[in-house]
Write the structure tokens for this entry.
Amino acid sequence: MYIVDSLLLLVSLVFLLLAINLFFPLKASKVSLLSFVGGILYGDLIWLWLSVQALVAVPYAFLVESPSDIAQLAGALLVVNWALLATHYFMGFATTKHFARAMAGIPITKKYPRFSRVFRWIPFGVDKIGLKIERDIAYGEQSLQKLDIYQCAVGKDSPSPVLLQIHGGGWLEKAGSKREQALPLIELMAKNGWIVVSIDYQLSPTVAMPEHAIDCKRALVWVKENIESYGGDPNFVVVTGGSAGGHLSSITALTENDPLLQPGFEEKDTSVQGCVTFYPVVDMINRNGLWYNNDLAKHLSKTVIQQKPGQAPGLYDQMSPLERVHKNAPPFLVIQGAADSLVAAREVPLFALRLDRMSAADSFYVELPFAQHAFDIFATPRSLLTAEAVLAFCDHLYQQKSGE
């Protein structure tokens, strides 16, 4: 039994460390990615892990009459782990409060059933009931230049506003796709009258920046020229995305009709009516000294931009949302998790502050306590309530536009 008890203690200690990581993520080089993966898979899949732990701990407790000191210590660690895990999970229910405080004057209506917010055994995918989905529509000639369209199965008499979703994944091949990110948001928006267009785009290292941004512009042009045949309003498009997608959605929103990002289609309209950017990379250079480590700088110069800042300083500035803010920027909702171990959470507020000071349109910044990078991928109280707030923001923009 000594070996079994020791193994149980080791496993309990690992679970406890994963729970502590939810509150104090590691941000140093070489461990930040591991901290991120552990935070998302452990913190957001609570029902899976609690079930696994219960299946191990409960039978053991009943089978062993006199547990050893090692087993008792393992049990104590497991209980502390449960308390931390549950605390982190249920803190997500305060999400609406944070959005309401930041978006004063925009009412947030509950859309998801309470059961979905509290308890969801399988937090993956989209509930397709009530949705019409068309996949892999080409907007260009390259294999990755495809998009999916989500809309309510019951059509409307009037055109529907459009949400353009850009996935993240470090701008890297095999690290992200249109079918796996922002699914709680996509489902909610589509079922509440929006047409959601989720796109793929060319990725590194096959292509270098700014090709990623150019593809997003191409997809936007396709939407404006074709979405009317799907019941969409080509004159009202809000762009959104997380991480690399947050960066690209911000760049898309801030570079209306920029000929440098529209080679071959310079005359096309690429304006949008709003942007919702999740935990975005807002600067391609650590000019403010706020990055946690040098990993992003190496990744950008070697793989994504494929040039060092000294070789292409103009391109680094051109691709930095922080440097592209201007007075005619559309309305922004900037969302950042305070426990983000990949994106410098301290730098994102600078972007929001610059938007607030320089842009004539409204902009809002929301920081969610103990939310990790990519916290919105799985269906949790935090992600579902965030989706409700984003819907409220987008509906508000559309109502303002309709009332003009």
